[in-house]
Hints:
It is built from ten helices and 13 strands. By secondary structure, the protein is α/β, with parallel strands linked by helices.
Amino acid sequence: MKRALITGITGQDGSYLAEFLLSKNYKVFGLTRRTSTPNYERIKHIQDQIELIPGDLLDQQSLTSAISLSNPDEIYNLAAQSFVATSWSQPVLTGEFTALGTTRMLESMRQVKPDAKFYQASSSEMFGEVQETPQTEKTPFHPRSPYGVAKVYAHWITINYRESYDLFTVSGILFNHESPRRGLEFVTRKISHGVAKIHLGQQDSLILGNLDAKRDWGFSGDYVEAMWLMLQQSKPDDYVIATGENHSVQEFVEAAFKVVGITNWKKYVKTSKEFYRPAEVDFLIGDATKAKKALGWKPKVSFADLVKLMVEADIKLLQKNSQ
């Protein structure tokens, strides 16, 4: 039985990845930070099938212990300070978690389990002010947020450990991927949750930032399979994972209201400069040709289906909570 250690197991991707690995008959370990209120909501349905190990990306010794204890064949480093907006108010902490946290994980693996395979969660935010469209593995990075900058560091340190120590380390440059398990602070979930509340008569309007920002949005459940596939290859390499489609925030809004039968969405949506980024990433669209060819991966859930999935899940959630 293969063994996997997932950092960030309580997050959106961590929970989908844990489910996926369990379906492949893995023994799954998850690194969790001690907080005063444990956030196990996303993994509570599989909690009895996984083993949680206390640890923190800021604490080298705890990572070394976690790798020692779990003795993993595969390590998936998904933990980060992952909300872009927060990275402006907490730039140093973002660097500590997202950049140096990755280095600590790699260093612990090198010392304790150098034959493990390591997956690093890289991000399309590394492209930032895009140098070419669509973006591939060869597109130069120009990050536009402290989060994007930290992810570039983490990406390069992962390559550095691969080249310096001959370790099996890969980075998946994942474009935006969403699901009903997305945090409420992210724009897609803010929209799906807001539309569900408007539909149920629980709120009157939805306040958003830049409606013109464009993203390449896929489904998290599809993307975790790509992570796994990268670690099943004979040689480590980095891959862009994306749908190759581009949609604006406004299109997401329109699609979400359409799910509940509202065509005049403008009646319910207001915009506020408060939710604009200091430096916007206007146009992200990924080219996953390499992943399709080498990994045999392709996204299964369409944009319209993703929006529908999220809105319907939020309606169900709100109905359950109000009972």
